[in-house]
Amino acid sequence: MKSSSGGNAVKLFCVRNAVPIVFLLVSAVGIYYSQFTAEYLIQEMLTRLARNSFLVLSLLIPIMAGMGLNFGMVLGAMAGQIGLIFISDWNISGLYGMTLAALIATPLAILFGWMCGVVLNKARGREMVTSYILGFFMNGVYQLVVLYGFGSLVPILNPELVLSRGYGIRNVTNLDNIRGTLDNAIPLDIMGIHIPLATFLLIGVFCLFIIWFRRTKLGQDMRATGQDLSVAHSAGIPVMRTRIISIVISTVLAAYGQIIFLQNVGTLNTYNSHEQAGVFAIASLLVGGATVARASILNVFTGVLLFHLMFVVSPMAGKYLVGDAQIGEYFRVFVCYAIISLALVLHAWRRHADRERARAALRGNAGGAA
Amino acid sequence: MQRGTMGAEDPLLRVEGVGKAYFSNRVLKNVNFTLGKGRILGLVGENGAGKSTLMNILFGMRVIQETGGYEGKILIDGQEVHFRSPMDALKAGIGMVHQEFSLIPGFTVAENIVLNRETLVYNPLVEAFGDRLTTLDRKNMSQRADEAIARLNIELDSSTPISELPVGYKQFTEIAREIDKKGTRLLVLDEPTAVLTETEADILLDSMRRLASQGISIIFISHRLQEVMSVCDDIVILRDGEVVLQTTPAETSVRQIASAMVGRKIEKNEGAGEERALSGETAMEISHLWVDMPGETVRDVSLSVREGEILGIGGMAGQGKLGIANGIMGLHPAGGNVTFHGKNVELNNPSSPLSLGISAVSEDRRGVGLLLEESIAWNIVFTSLQMQGRFLKRVGPLKLRDEEAIAECARSYIRDLEIKCTGEKQHVQELSGGNQQKVCLAKAFETRPQLLFVAEPTRGIDVGAKKVVLDTLKRYNREHGMTVVVISSELEELRSVCDRIAIIDKGAVAGILPASTPSEAFGYLLMGAGSDEAEKAASDNSNATEAARA
Q1: What is the DSSP string of A2-59?
Q2: Is A37 in the B-facing interface, judged by CB distances under 8 Å?
Q3: pLDDT tens-digit readout, A119-160
Q4: What are the chain B neighbours of A234 within 8 Å (beta carbons)?
């Protein structure tokens, strides 16, 4: 056992960061074949960083509280979208519109998050699969409300939003009133590359919040709860409440993240936009080298960059290599799920390895002999 | 025999006539002792002597109130107290360090010491979102941790993560946590040295002396007599819920404590089995076995079982005796070498020992041993049918269960073992504990093993059934030449059926003695006093003892 300490530091680093390294290599090959210019790629990456980082950052707090990857963040995304539907209807534009959407989304997200938290507390140890299925279930509720409730129970004034039958929101909602509002709030162009400075500032504030949050009593309690529920409980920490709070915070932030995401995209796919928010955000985080039990801010940005780099280059690389952009398209969706599966398997494997190690410490002399 | 600080001042803790019965089962009666400020009291007793119940009373554990409270009085500083919850006890300045660690592995030593009692700093967000958004003052936290560590007089860097510490230092971290609590005046250490190496244990004992000199009183629960002798000011020995001896190290000897502890006024070899001439051939050879059974870790056991004997394996709870059988039977991850009649027993594969003719009766009869919702008959033949393909009859291309043979077999065991039931079709869950145990034995016998492990055969069963179970084991051993390994916490029970008894301590064999050795000698082994002392006691006391260390 002693021999495995010396020259294996590099190997350990590679094993720990296997996923980002593989992505970097694949992307490098992709960039070469895609024939994109540097300007184009940099612009794309900046846009996508601004668009997605907030959503991915919202995943960090539940990981800290030991609840794994919060697939339930789609609930927050739904809340954000409901806020956006209202401001589109009332035709309130610009930053005011975004703020109002966030204000509408907040209580909804708190409600969803609290519900989700209560359910996950009853499914301790199986949080991820539970939150994933909960997302599907709430998707149904969301569809029911938006497809049947809006325009009938909930008054919608703008007929352009409503389906021709008189109730229910159309498949595509135009978000012209807030398109790019935040991204262009502080105009900044360097060498022809547009930089969405205000969005980055907001993301920066968010990062500071997370760093500060880790230093609070609540943050410390979450870390304790995440590492050993029963010990934290016996120390008098209200663990169940702490877990619910972590999910509520995550859900609320996911709602804001979705609003920022959609202001960049400019159109809301009423019944689809939220669906992929969860899976793509989680895949990005994992590509950045995070695990189910540990994730940092650095993982978020590395992950968003690498994941979207591949997203951008793979269709073109596919087209030039095989003559078919579909191959790249297919590849990126397939990789997305492969990454999540891999991360889950690695997590289980690592936990097993940790237990083995703990066991070896108990063996006394017999362990050495065996 | 009241000693200690009996001046004008009231002692810190006074226990007066404390007793406790769980319904009709009396576990403590009329316990009296006092503990002065800055003194260390050793609380010694076998498993089930009442130590835990006494501590539960002291801590106001809910289980005590739920079962009707306790008798007698507990006084702190001369004032009678009634703790309704552990929180009350904590407020009164009583701290406890349990055997299982309650530490957060990824936190540093400092974070663990101040866990949920962190130093907090106010910030304006608290007004909006409540107290939990106060920030942590890490500098002050590590300062507090360092102070607590300094009071223990040990070397420990408070910024090390717990997961990187050796076991002993985890123990110190727990103690430091209790010390950091404001107003901790009485510290209860429950078997703190059980998991420590000798050097670590020595450091711990030094720390305890140091804490005592700072005015903290300590109740030290341990079965390691030498530690008790070296560190304690007063010693209280409990047996069967009563204080049998209250003394000081100066007035007593390890031997006196050992015999007080295992005592039972030695029923004159009535227990000890007769000496038999055995072939001396080795049936099973165990070498360097380790087993990862939670709570019963086996670290390094080497042992040989002789052909045709009844070998007893004894030891305190948690020292690993139960792990041996479970490891060999493949129920918990294990390593090392085990051979049976020269053939290798494959570990971690339950079918290997079974196919070699080794069976086991589990200590967890309701969980592992029995199919509770099935009939007696099906329980008895289950293993033989599944593993050995017996009780089957051929009908054309199919193999069917031979119900008639199964019923006949069950009936014969019901008669033989005096199983009280309505018939072989009765469900096992309806039987009493003793009769369930008999079904377990029947099931093991029916596999016709050459070697049988029986773990805690008499746990939780009544006296009559106990006798039948033990007699049956003896009879099968004598009549069928079946080698038996009995694992039990009850030393007297082992002495009554076994030829030799091995005592397991800290996951290894502390010593093996013939069953006729006086129980005092086993007491030494049980309490980690070393095999030399035990042998001395054995040869001093008994002229019938052979030099019998294997």
Answers
A1: GGGSSTTHHHHHHHHTHHHHHHHHHHHHHHHHHT--HHHHHHHHHHHHHHHHHHHHTT
A2: no
A3: 999 988 888 889 889 888 989 999 999 988 888 888 888 888
A4: 102
Indicate the number of domains in chain A: 1
> Which residues of chain B register pLDDT less than 70?
1-9, 195, 263-275, 277, 279, 463, 529-550
Q: Are A239 and A61 in contact (CB under 8 A)?
A: no
Reported as a single tens digit per residue, the pLDDT across B225-279 is 888 899 999 999 988 888 988 889 888 888 788 788 776 544 444 444 566 767 6
pLDDT at A107 over 70: yes
The Cα-based distances of B103 to A232, B163, B177, B198 in angstroms read 8, 9, 10, 22
Would an 8 Å CB–CB cutoff place A215 in contact with chain B? yes
Q: Do the Cβ atoms of A220 and B299 come within 8 Å?
A: no
Q: Return d(Cα B42, Cα B247) in angstroms, integer.
A: 10
Compare CB distances from B135 to A215, A230, A366 and report the shortest one's residue: A215
Residue A329 counted as domain residue = yes
What domain range includes position A54?
Answer: 20-354
CATH at A94? 1.10.3470
Please give the residue of chain B at the shortest CA–CA distance from A214.
B135
For chain A, give the mean pLDDT.
85
Contact A224 B104 (CB under 8 A): yes
A310 found inside a domain: yes
Q: How far apart are the CA of A137 and the nearest CA of chain B, in angstroms?
A: 31
A233: left (phi over 0), alpha (psi -120 to 50) or beta: alpha
Cβ separation of B104 and A216 shorter than 8 Å? no
B205: CB partners within 8 A, 6+ apart? B193, B227, B230, B231
Within-domain flag for A199 = yes
Determine, yes or no, domain membership for A77.
yes
Cα–Cα distance for residue pair B104/B162, rounded to 1 Å: 7
For the record, the structure tokens of A323 come out as 């003559």
Q: What angle do CA B152, B154, B157 make, to 5 degrees?
A: 115
Q: How do residues A70-87 score in pLDDT, each as one tens digit?
A: 888 999 999 999 999 999
For residue A67, give how far its alpha carbon lies from the nearest alpha carbon of chain B (Å): 16
- How near does any CA of chain B get to the CA of A294, in Å? 11
What 8-state DSSP symbol labels residue A148? Answer: I
pLDDT band at A174 (very low <50, low <70, confident <90, very high): confident
Domains of chain B: 1-93+185-263 (3.40.50.300), 101-183 (no CATH), 270-357+449-550 (3.40.50.300), 365-448 (no CATH)
- A221 Cα to chain B: minimum distance (Å): 7
Considering only residues 268 to 297 of chain B, which have any Cβ-Cβ distance to chain A shorter than 8 Å? 288-290, 292, 297
**CA distance linking residue A202 with residue B80, whole number of Å:** 61
Please give the pLDDT value at position B264: 53
Cβ proximity of A178 and A99 under 8 Å:
no
Interface contact flag, B132 A218, Cβ < 8 Å: yes
Task: Name the token pair of B44.
Answer: 């010694």
**Residue A191, min C-alpha distance to chain B (Å):** 41
* Axis crossing angle, helix A197-214 with helix A239-265, rounded to the nearest 10: 170
Cβ contacts of B297 on chain A, cutoff 8 Å: 362
Q: How many angstroms separate the CA atoms of A97 and A297, rounded?
A: 29
- Whether residues A218 and B333 touch (CB distance < 8 A) is answered with no
- CA B130 to CA B51: how far, in whole Å? 43
User: Which of B121, B135, B164 has the highest number of chain A CBs within 10 A, making it the mutation to test binding with A?
Assistant: B135
- The number of helix segments (H) and strand segments (E) in chain B equals 19, 24
Considering only residues A354 and B29, tell me which one the structure prediction assigns the higher pLDDT: B29
Would you call A227 and B292 a contact, using CB atoms and an 8 Å cutoff?
A: no
